[in-house]
Specification:
about 55 residues; mainly alpha; about 65% helix; about 0% strand
Length: about 55
């Protein structure tokens, strides 16, 4: 068994943790990243429009 370990390249600690993270299934809402980015842009545009439409002070 020690010969097999010598042939394999050890995985870096940082990438091993990331791979394990993405393999796990998590509970909760699953939203595509495109939808999150789109909703963020819409929220920014609405807030800019509200600032110019409704003057303050």
């Amino acid at each position: 068994m020690s010969k097999k370990r010598k042939r394999e390249a050890p995985m870096p600690a940082s990438s091993a943790g990331l791979l394990r993270f993405f393999e796990d299934e998590t509970k909760g809402i699953k939203i595509r990243p495109e939808i999150v980015i789109g909703l963020s842009i819409v929220l920014i545009v609405i807030s800019i429009l509200i600032r110019f439409v409704i003057p303050t002070g």
